[in-house]
Amino acid sequence: MKRPKVIVFMPAYNVASTLERTVRDMPPGIADEILLIDDGCTDDTACLGKQLGLTVIRNGRNRGYGYSQRIGQIKALEKGADVVVMLHPDYQYDPRRLKELITPIIRGEADLVFGSRMRSRKETLENGMPYSKYILNRIYMYTQNYLLHAHLSEYFSGYRAFSQKLLTTLPLYAFSDNFVYDQELMISALAYGFTVAEIPVPVRYFREASSMRFLKGVEFLHQSNIALTRYLLYAYHIYRSPMFIYRSSPRLTSSQSGLDK
After folding, report:
1. Within-domain flag for 102
2. Which of 47, 99, 133, 155 counts the highest number of beta carbons within 10 A?
3. Can you tell me the distance from the alpha carbon of 177 to that of 87, in angstroms, rounded to the nearest whole number?
4. Which DSSP helix (H) or strand (E) runs through 232?
């Protein structure tokens, strides 16, 4: 049986201080290729990525986290990936759990797998997550589980694995270029009936690890609530949102994306 092709992509903005540690901790022999999506970095991220043997894809300018994620997913598909993994290169998530993350997809048990930080309240807080952030995560988790009829421990993880089938079915172009892309993709996946699973992943909170600023966090939660509302309007046949309209396998040329190769 042919081994599935696994491609990891990292949406990156000024992560030169943590990129090497993230890459070095990835178990060898699992990822066939690692893509670094340079979203207008102003530090040495791109140069370091090339030194580490990564395939560096430049957005040309800062286009947003969601845009970078979409580019990473589409480029991975164009390279023939059967499993696509997103790993934030800020060394917050444990890269050593890569095999566990992709195993449910390879076995056909899931199409989207989360690396969940919420294994236990004690461990999460001891690892450095601010208490206010923990509470907000839990409130949002209970709310979203109730509305989406799901049973997940969190929704904001930056460590995710996707099946080829999921990424070639969901309307990726309908999702935001900003941070809410994650939530829109997740809601769309559940609405389409895809199986979502999660594995526990320890995380680290330290000065270099990325953290959303307060105003950005408020904006993100507001946009997430809008995405949930759009889902409810769709579920009750009130509004036909583009987030839930099937599109064929995504293809993107360099001229369409504005990529700086």
Report:
1. yes
2. 155
3. 18
4. helix 214-235
- Round to whole Å and give the CA distance between 220 and 223: 5
β-partners of residue 37 are 11, 57
* Tokens 């917050």 belong to residue: 92
What CATH number is attached to the domain comprising 124?
3.90.550.10
Task: Label residue 252 by pLDDT band (50, 70, 90).
Answer: very low
Res 208: pLDDT: 55
Q: What is the 3-state secondary structure (H, E, C) of 127-164?
A: CCCCHHHHHHHHHHHHHHHHHHCCCCCCCCCCEEEEEH
Cα first-last separation, the chain? 35
Q: By the 8 A CB rule, do 53 and 167 touch?
A: no
Q: Is it the case that residue 11 has pLDDT exceeding 90?
A: yes
Is 106 among the domain residues?
A: yes
The verdict on residue 228 lying in a domain is no
Mean pLDDT across the chain: 86
Tally of domains within the chain: 1
Among the listed residues 162, 193, 179, 197, the one whose alpha carbon sits nearest the alpha carbon of residue 74: 162
Q: Are 127 and 245 in contact (CB under 8 A)?
A: no
Q: How far apart are CA 228 and CA 30, in angstroms?
A: 35
* Domain boundaries, position 73: 6-146+155-165+195-211
Taking residues 66-90, what's their average pLDDT?
Answer: 97
Rounded to whole angstroms, the Cα distance separating 173 from 243 reads 9
Residue 251 domain-assigned (yes or no): no
Q: What is the pLDDT of residue 245?
A: 74
